[in-house]
Amino acid sequence: MRVDRLWLTDFRNYESADLTLAPGLTVVVGDNGEGKTNLLEAVGYLASLSSFRAAPDDALVRQGTERAIVRAEADRDGRALLIEAEIVASGRNRVQVNRQPLRRARDLLGALRASAFSPDDLVLVKGGPAERRRYLDDALVALHPRNDQLRSDVDKVLRQRNALLKSAGGRLDGDAASTLDVWDARLAELGTTLADARVELLDRLRPLLASSYDELARTPAAVDVSYVSSWRDVDGGLAVALVESRRDDVRRGLSLVGPHRDEVAITLAGRPSRTHASQGEQRSLALALRLAAHALVTEVTASAPVLLLDDVFSELDPGRSAALLRLLPPGQALLTTAGHVPDEARVERLLRIEAGKVVE
Asked: Which of 4, 143, 187, 309 could disulfide-link 335, Cβ–Cβ 3.0 to 4.6 Å?
């Protein structure tokens, strides 16, 4: 899987851009604030219809304009793809694949896959549980696009259940209790399915994470991940846990147990990485998490996603930077840097960005 050519019109700080990417490593250099990350963001957008920087759509449209166009010619296992997205500052976006309009965003999933790492990924280690749950759920969707429906269904049930609990005002009448029973049954079914998928995913990621981290750190280290849930060990599972939690849920007006409250614990040498690992170790762990998911998706789908590495050298010492370059998997990669490109980089194409302009 690769992107051969990328066009941008009024995307972020680009009035217009037309660039060709290498099938291997393309390095994008330039000073900070010139627009390097925006190129990676554009590729990531065509894979997921969202920004890996969590930016709203209106932020992607160049200031003073009403819409942005992102267009790419790609190859997926020998099949030519033309993906075009029109992003509007306010209103409904439009997307086409091979000139055919998409009826819904979910239909794009799997057409183009991308794995992105940015300095903000440090939150995977230092941030709250929601960041690590999102990491797992995004990986599940990359592995099997149908998992996007499962994630969406769980979120919908939780919104409905929480709305009911909030409207109850601390007391349930008969009708509200009956409705809550329905949502509890649905949440127990879907939530258990999602949590089981996360646990299975972690089991497959664990050895890949350990090997990726050891390569980056250049020394063996005991890295482990585990799924922490207050309800999975309850006899009867989530269905019983929801019954036991109902009184507190009604009193608080929100759902206190379920997959939306679970944690992914990451340890290094048996100690919590969030509080006991150094800054360098945490950054290496975050990158290893991305590389592990990338490797698993490649293995399962038999097609490597496009690897997007944003400003990665600024977060690693020279030794770990060299180790990362040795660790780069086969396939297409786009890498941005504001500084020197290490000698170990096998660069096939070098682009310079100056004020939203691409210079060969």
From this structure: 309
